[in-house]
Structure formats: structure tokens, C-alpha cells
């Protein structure tokens, strides 16, 4: 293994950028909830930075990247044994193995945090804390092994996922659906409006997410090279196009452009380009972002038709955006951009890659949904008081009922 100083410096920066995304996500979500729940939302996200960091070091990294089995890793790197000396099997790194472990840790931190937007306003914090740890070990690590580890069965089949379309967004999005089915709807939804209390916070969070996403996508090249540059460019093109795609449809449908629509469209574009970032070029990211922005605008309204209370549109943006991005990669992938990839339909590669992408999406959806549903049902059955706050606590708000704090001082004391 030959360590490259430039590659190491870039991935160090990218690691910090990806960590910064979790506070950005907290603000993005926090601005969209009612004032009485803002700290509850921030705490659910920040707690992931604490618990998942330790779990990843103890066991998560080893289960995701240890061993050569197709379904799950082993305990070779448990408690970080030799993790600073030995790269995961099949990976040729130009960065220290400990840096690769740390970079992947940040993905493990933010992925379950995405779920919090769907369950806003109604889950007990103690239940979330236990669910978070179980989900990270039982769902995230196996799926990461399937897709990211060279030994994983989806990796070996040839499915592509540059930075986490299936591992992060599809995985978290479908898990959010399973969890809210068990939790049920918020009191009063959808009859009573539950308006965002601070859209400026949401826009600030969007800006932080967009900024951090450069580390998420371009950092996944694991080197300071041309692929990283292409991924960087694709990331911002898709975010911009996603914003425009959402706003155009919103204007046609409702007659106005909203700041929440701009933020949601940008995030939808970022989600969609995540699996594609290092494998597509030219105007492909613009097309992918615009199509996904428009599609996710319509997808967020499905909750009213089907009656599931996805509070902050995790399913409509992350699940739908992740699926679209993963499948569109099968159309736009181009080996002239990245020789480690495969040609998609439009580059003359036929339909094979699209088929593998569909298999990867389908496997992730089924596995994550089923295991998440089981975790949620077991916790609901065994935890005293269940996993949902009482009606009184929900009316009071999570800030006071779960944390004995308030986000804002409305008096003059």
C-alpha cells in the first residue's frame, strides 16, 4: 500500500464535510417542524453523531467491510483491531486504512439520521436511541457490505453506487416508511396544518447539506483525481437542476415558487446524483437532477393519497430520489468518465447495468423494510410505554416532554 499525501488530504477534508452534513440535516429538518419540537429534531440527529460513531468503531465497520463473505462482514476489524494497518479485502487504497474507516463512519452517521424527518413530532427519544443502534448494526452494515465492499454480492454482480444511492437514500427512505407504519400518524394530521416554524433554518440547512455533499460525492473517489472533479461538478449541477425542476412544476401546479420547494428540489437533485456522481458526465447530471426534482415534487403528495404520515417528506425525496438516481445511472453511466464503471444504455452498454441497478434497489427495499419493521414491532411490544409519546406529551411537544428544554424563550425573563 502506497499512501498518497494529496489523496489523504482530500479525503480528510471530505470526511469533515460529510460530518458537517448531519448538523445541516438537523437544521434542514428542524426548521420544518413546529417550534415545540425543534430541539427534539436536532437532538435525534446530533445523537446519531454520538452513538453511531462508537458503534461503527466497535462493530459496524467490521460488519460492513471485514471478511470475504457475500452477505455480511466478520469481526476482523471489531474494536478497530488492525483497522489502522489493514485495508478491507479487495480495496486498493492510497489513503491510510484508518482514514477510510473514518470516512465511511460519517456515512453510517447520517444515514439513519435521515429517518428522523419521517417520524417527526411523535417518537419517544429513548425508543429512537435503541432503534438507532439496532438499525445501524442490523440494516445499515449489511447493506453497506453488499454494495460497497468488494466481497458483497451486489458489488460482485456489477451494480454501481458511487456514494450511496441504495446504501444511504433508498435504505433510509424505505426504513422510514416501515417505521411510520408502526408509529402511526401525528395527532391531527392531515386535517390540521402543521406548518414549518422557521424556513430560514431550513434554507440554512440546505446550504450546509449542499456544501457537505461535495465531500459525500467527490470524496467517494477516495483520491484527488479527475473522477473526484467530475463528481464535484455533477453534484452541484444536479442540485441546481433539481431545484429548477421542482420549482417549475410547483409554479405550474400551484401558481407560485416557494422557498421550501427550492430547498426540497435541491436536496432531491443531490439525492439522485449520489449513486451517479463518479460515473456520468456531460449534461447527464442536469437531466438526472431536473427529472428527479420534478418527480419528487409529485411523490411528496402521495402521502395524502395513501394516508401515511411522512412528516418531512423523507419517502418522497430520499426513497423516490434514491430509486430514480440508481436506475437512471443504468441509462447514463459512461466508462469514459470512470473506467471502473460500466456503460449504460445511452453509452452503448445495453440493458445489463440497468437490470443490476434494479436488482440492487429491489434487494435494498425488501431487506431494509422487513428488518426495520421487525425492529420497530419488537420495540413497540417490549418497551414500557411503547415507542410513541403519549397524547399529552405530543401536545406539549418533544422539547419539553423528552428533553425538559425549549428551543426559544418567548417570555421576557
UniProtKB/TrEMBL annotation:
Residues annotated as transmembrane = 12-33, 45-64, 98-120, 127-148, 160-184, 196-216, 222-247, 254-273, 279-300, 312-333, 358-379
Give all residue intervals belonging to the Ammonium transporter AmtB-like domain: 9-408
Please give the Gene Ontology molecular function terms for this protein. ammonium channel activity
**What's an example GO cellular component term for this entry?**
plasma membrane
**UniProt-listed PROSITE patterns:** AMMONIUM_TRANSP (PS01219)
The protein's location, in the record's own words, is: Cell membrane
How does the entry describe its membrane topology?
Multi-pass membrane protein
Q: Which family does it belong to?
A: Belongs to the ammonia transporter channel (TC 1.A.11.2) family.
Q: What is this protein called?
A: Unannotated protein
